[in-house]
Specification:
Rossmann fold, two-stranded antiparallel ribbon
Amino acid sequence: MNYLIDGNAYINVAVNVVKKILSKDRSIGDEYYMPDIFNEGRYMLKETSRIKFRDFCLNYLTSLISPVYNEVDEVHIVFDSKSWRKKYVKEHFQQEESIDSEFEYKSGRKSDMIHLFFEYFQSEIQPHLEKKSGINFYRIEGMEGDDLIAFLHERSNRNTAIYTVDKDMIQLVNNSSSYTFLVMPKMMTRHKKLMYTEKQASDSIEVNDFFSLEETDISNGLDNILTKFEKKGYKRFNVDPTIELLTKIFGGDKSDSIPRIHKMTPSKVKKITNYLLEMYPDDLISRIDNSLNDESILDECVSKMIEINKIKDQDIIVSLKDSLKLNIRLMRLSTKMIPIEVKQNAYSLIKENVSNRKFNFSKLIEIKNNSVLI
């Protein structure tokens, strides 16, 4: 099994927990950082902050993997880079005048000095994990962590666990020729969560010329894995990845500042989603993925939106397809949506690591138990 970890989510959870711990430590003072006397104008974490953060990161990472450590072959931790989507949005609005040109992808996000934690992790902790435990780390120009996870996910035919706080990842959940599920921390909710699907392929999956793998084998394997997480306090949530994706494409996503398509209220989104699932029960996602080259599914969606909203204004009708193209490109996590030049960069940088570096859980435990050496 592969374990794919959203590094930004993982470190943000660690930062939030550690900052709360440090805020109660009177010896730390007012701030968890201080001026770097050797680099004017720069800052560094205080020693207590580094120690608390280091120990929590290693303990937390171990706890994420421990329920299924004997099932895991590879661990991949990915980090965000500047997204290709920002460039795409800018170019899109230069070409299309029918959509609100003030749209800004993922606007309004704030941060403080937490970058110091990221820098410390990547310069001091990451090299030990990479060298000794065999964890793969990636940060590729032009790609968000979500893109990297989708990229790695598509390149593998293994069962996959994905650690994330982002519900956009639900679209990657599956249970057909192999299974994929999400592992999510509590955040502002009561439970640690397992997002999975019980939706099955319609026929048995041919594995090779000698035998076929029955659907029940996949389901039983997933159930056994989820049970191991449940013993560590996780709760199961059954989801439909196709419905989740369509809901965000038509209804928008406030967390990423992606607007809903014209007058597509939740009830209307549900209506068009049900229609599309009925029309294309087996290949709807693949049609969406191929919409950059074959726009027939876009035309079908536009026709249905016109019918549902009773639209007669030609300017609005023209804008529907543009809005749909934009939301699909921003919301869908698929290598088919990623620009060729960005994708090629990922292929060249990931190829060697994916094929050679295997995860060693006992070495991770060793690093955790000897963290003072970091």
